[in-house]
Design a protein that fits this description.
This protein is mostly helical. It has two domains: 70 residues, no CATH class; 87 residues, no CATH class. α2 packs parallel to α4 and α3 crosses α4.
Length: 186
């Protein structure tokens, strides 16, 4: 996620409350993470574009995704089958569902436009932390019902943010280094 690039910086211009909730990745066990990642993959594919569901095919995809995921790179071989089963279960549950991240990407784009890369440089803020600060409100506003949908929202928001941040538009992009920038317009 490109938002990880923003984790390396601190935002000295905007003082916001410190998030005391740990990151979602910290709260999940490896099996839970594999399950959520399976759900994410299932939700990210539109059912109308997918071939008919076949158990062997889904199991093969599940194992492939577990083996290539950086989070599970150090997992012993015996644990791979457990993680594959968890991924398979999450993917299977969401195979016929779809999460459309267009609204999240558009929101990220608009938020990215508020920042001027000429003033804020390559690492303007900690985007993941800002999203976590407003998680409850974002989940309500965007009808996010699960951890998998939340993570897909964050990915789409991040893609939009990077696109919006790279553009400078007169009257939209912040031109003053002292202007307070908020996630929500209030």
């Amino acid at each position: 996620m490109a938002g990880a690039f923003f984790l390396a910086s601190s935002d000295k211009e905007v003082a916001e409350p410190v998030d005391t909730r740990p990151s979602a990745q910290v709260l999940l066990s490896p099996s839970e993470l594999a399950y959520v990642k399976g759900q994410m993959l299932g939700l990210s594919k539109h059912p109308g574009t997918m071939p008919e569901y076949e158990v062997d095919w889904v199991m093969k995809i599940s194992e492939h995704e577990i083996r290539r995921a950086i989070e599970f790179a150090d997992a012993p071989e015996i644990k791979i089958s457990e993680l594959t089963e968890a991924f398979f279960k999450g993917y299977t549950e969401q195979f016929d569902a779809y999460y459309n991240g267009d609204r999240a990407r558009e929101a990220g784009y608009k938020y990215g436009l508020k920042w001027n890369p000429e003033l804020h440089g390559m690492f303007p803020l900690n985007l993941e932390k800002r999203l976590l600060l407003y998680r409850d409100r974002l989940e309500a506003d965007y009808t996010i019902k699960s951890e998998a949908e939340w993570r897909l929202f964050c990915q789409a928001f991040d893609r939009g943010f990077v696109q919006g941040y790279s553009e400078i538009k007169e009257g939209v992009t912040v031109q003053s280094r002292y202007q307070k920038i908020r996630l929500f317009d209030e």
